[in-house]
Amino acid sequence: MSNLLIQITDPRTWFDWRRVGQISEAKQNFWGLTKVLFGLPRNATNHQEFSVNTNTTVRTIAQGLRRAKQLKGLVAQITTRLQSITCWLEGNEPEFKFAEEMEKRRAYVDELVALKAAIARANAMNSVTFREQGLTLAAAVIRMGELKGEVVLYESFQLRRGSEQRLDRDFETGRAIPREVRWSSALTEVERAAKLEALREECTELNELLEEANHRVKLAR
Fold first, then answer.
1. Is the pTM of this model over 0.85?
2. Distances (CA, A) of 220 to 43, 81, 117
């Protein structure tokens, strides 16, 4: 690799390649070195399938999300295991080897990082049309989260109307004095129900678009 790096970075070597018509080979070597330096396989393409540490090939965003969820579970499982095998009594060594489990965890984390990055790129580079507005998948995912948050917000509102009796205490006499108070609210139950229905319909519509895109859009390295 060191020889290849010298060839690429030395301007004199570039000049020699140009003279003998080998510039295309130099570019190929440079791309190969870049993949090695960044941990990418040499046969990477714009739509390379993910198959790191698993027999399951990941092609689409939907498959990537499922694999990412699986990887998070595996990392959590190994993390818990590692915390229980860092020390032991002599003659009572744990069944799992610390170094081996750490290596597995690193491999899963590396795959998860690459997968999340690929999903983020796909979300940024692809879009859907939502109610006559173009949205990247990344923006659509964020909007979906905010819509769900607004649904929770409207559901949490305490709406009260009408009057009720309260007892106030007279500080001079110590006697309880009944008093009527009236409640008002910023919106009615009917208005809240209508708003919640509209929000949930918007969530459903946007979710359908995202689901379709997740099964259609290919992941790229």
1. no
2. 13, 33, 9
